[in-house]
Amino acid sequence: MPRTATKTHPARKSLSDFITERFDDFSRSQKDVARYIVDHLDEAAFQTAEELARRANTSSSTVVRFSQALGFDGYPELQQAAIEEYRHKVAEGPPNGNGGGGGGAAALFNFDHSEFEASLGADYANIEETARSLTREQIEASVSALATSRRVLIVGVEQMAFFASYLRHLLGLLDVRAEIVASPSQDNIQKLSRMDEDTLLVVLTAGRAHPLILRALKLARHRRARTMSITDATLSDVAEHSELMLYYSSNGPSYIRSNAALMGLVQALAHGVYSRDEAAHRDRIRAFKLK
């Protein structure tokens, strides 16, 4: 009898929930597909296998094998499940202030929009989704860790190096001692080796974490340093090594991930540190502006 999705994928369970439950059973490349679908459902629901593979940095054959590993005959059946979940979420709407469904903001542009407007609209939606996904407890704990740690070490590789540098700049304005690690050079390895229990390690990732990121997190745990991860993957492999986790949404119609929410999150964290003792920081900021 041919294999069907209904046998292993109960109708009352969403595709995202089903993928999350099976996540540890997937191969490394299949996990990349899983992360992308769970965090970019609105895109995955309407992409071809080839487009999905490109965005998840894998091959179309991996996407097909991933579909079959979930019990579907192939990718079209998985895509249909993604469409159904997406439609359900759209109909349900984002939670309002009272915790119920509906009440979400209207779309930024009309349905008949340009590619330029689609990109801006995605950034707008990402910022909103990021704000909704973070709790006050998460933010307060993260801001407190940044403000009270004697040493902050920020790791960001490749495109994340820019945001690591920017976060260091913002913290430097507040007299917070911060360093960055942007590559596995000997000098940077030495920075990591000096971590101790007075250090806060902050890592920034997009998609699958770079090996240097995982190495740094494991070393931090061994050295009893505090850890904070900022990631766009809810199923990120940094989760098990991190004390504090902050998620940002990076959906986008372009060939690159949207970084608008990440930029907003970095700036909000710095503003949180500033707001803890605004009077003490005000003169320092004013002096910097006068330079």
Fold and architecture overview:
The structure is a single chain. With 291 residues, the chain is of the alpha/beta class. It has two domains: 5-98, Winged helix-like DNA-binding domain superfamily/Winged helix DNA-binding domain (Arc Repressor Mutant, subunit A, Orthogonal Bundle); 132-289, Rossmann fold. It is built from 14 helices and five strands. The protein has helices at residues 5-8, 15-22, 28-39, 41-44, 49-55, 60-69, 75-92, 115-133, 136-148, 160-173, 186-193, 211-222, 260-276, 278-289, and strands spanning 151-156, 178-181, 199-205, 226-231, 244-247. Strand 1, helix 10 and strand 2 form a beta-alpha-beta unit. The protein starts with a helix and ends with a helix. Residues 1-11 and 96-105 have low confidence and may be disordered.
Give the CATH superfamily of the largest domain: Glucose-6-phosphate isomerase like protein, domain 1
N to C succession of SSEs: HHHHHHHHHEHEHEHEEHH
Strand ordering within the main sheet: 2-1-3-4-5
For the record, give the distance between the C-alpha atoms at the N and C termini, rounded to a whole number: 75 Å
Our estimate of the beta-strand percent is: 5-15%
Give the overall form: globular
Radius of gyration: 21 Å
Indicate the CATH architecture of the largest domain: 3-Layer(aba) Sandwich
The total beta strand count reads 5
**Helix proportion of residues, in percent?**
40-55%
Outline the biggest β-sheet.
5 strands, parallel
Helix/strand/pairing category: alpha/beta
CATH class of the largest domain equals: Alpha Beta
What is the CATH T-level topology of the largest domain? Rossmann fold
Count of the separate structural domains:
2
**Number of helices, counting only DSSP H or I runs of 4 residues or more:** 14
